[in-house]
Amino acid sequence: MLRRWRRGPARGYLPLALAVVTILGLGWVFGTRVFAIRDAAADVRAFQARDQAVHAEIAALRQKLVEAPLPQVVEREARQRLHWGFPDEERIVIVRR
Predict the structure, then answer these.
(1) Domains of the chain: which residue ranges?
(2) Measured between alpha carbons, how far is 73 from 79 in angstroms, rounded to an integer?
(3) Residue 59 to residue 57: CA distance in whole angstroms
(4) Distance between CA 4 and CA 7 in Å, rounded?
(5) How confident is the model at residue 38 (pLDDT cuts 50, 70, 90)?
(6) DSSP sequence for the chain
């Protein structure tokens, strides 16, 4: 005698399971995209800050280059960097270790 197959409980949940898997997959894809965009935006902000700092440093160096030929600047740099002075001056250099 032939029996008809009854519809099992798993068959009714198949569309629901596919929908859940699809939603989870889309959420994972778009969620990782959001994190990647957030990380890229943070990198861009860091690069912009570094760019502004470099431009400020370039402006300061250009200003120093303009002032370099002045005798007062040459004397100040010789005193500070080379610890030079005039012969009648006594220089005291404190070296901390």
Answers:
(1) 13-70
(2) 10
(3) 5
(4) 9
(5) very high
(6) ---PPPPPHHHHHHHHHHHHHHHHHHHHHHHHHHHHHHHHHHHHHHHHHHHHHHHHHHHHHHHHHHHTTSHHHHHHHHHHHS----TT---------
Phi, psi of 69 (to 5 degrees): -70, -10
CA distance linking residue 57 with residue 68, whole number of Å: 16
CB atoms within 10 A of CB 73: 13
> Encoding tokens for residue 57?
């440093």
3's tokens: 């029996």
Q: What are 46-84's pLDDT values in tens digits? A: 999 999 999 999 999 999 889 888 888 888 888 888 888
The confidence score (pLDDT) of residue 56 equals 97
Q: Residues 82, 85, 91, 93: what is their CA dihedral angle, to the nearest 10 degrees? A: -10
